[in-house]
Fold:
Amino acid sequence: MSAPIAVSIAGSDPSGGAGIEADLKTFSALGVYGAAVITALTAQNTKGVFGIHDVPADFIAAQINAVFTDLDLGAVKIGMLGNPAAIDVVTAALDRYRPRNVVLDPVMVASSGQPLLRGDALGRLRELIARVRVLTPNLPEAAALLAAAPARDEDEMRTQAQRLLALGPAAVLIKGGHGGGAESVDLLVEAGGETLRLAAPRIATENTHGTGCTFASAIAAGLAKGLPLQTAARKAKSYVSAAIAAADRLGVGTGHGPLHHFHAWW
Structure:
């Protein structure tokens, strides 16, 4: 039997905590073969992002064509797409290949606060959202997509998730990690009307670099293995929570360090 395969279409983080590197670690930790299409090179570490070099759109397309025409992809995870041209080639590829499980993490701002999405790309990003199965914004990203203030409680999170469903995804997982309270609560709202509440104790740590990338790729890994969406989301929440809880054991970098993707092994 062949291994489940997922591909990440995202930017590279040379410090290894976010982006393509986090996605591939997550796929591996969860028993999925990982492929990668790089959309941007970044100069970053645990303290910040110091430079971004966009991969030309035609070369992003060439990478996508090479992977999609050869590998039996069970899921596609999309992360950083920093400009309109990158978004356009990915949108065209989804229309051409029609992959069955697409998870879009609408990466707009780095954990350290630096913008990763050009302002003129927001409208194009909304068009891409219509092609995906799951959209996974955090509170600031959901607010930016809706031109609204960030949700302050679960009722507002649910309302914003429902508004985002109008853009066309089959489901929205709105992440509450930027909120307050003793619990970190995420809501998975599906177009059919079902809502799944995912809650875990909020963990006091500075080492949360790459959390959004990891969560989205963990969901993609579950879908690549054939799990139902709600099961994939539950397992992804458990995995990310444990990776955050173990993050302080790593001691990587002097800023906001990465999660411990391989907490179950070492």
Q: What stands out?
A: The radius of gyration is 17 Å. The first strand starts at residue 5 and ends at 12.
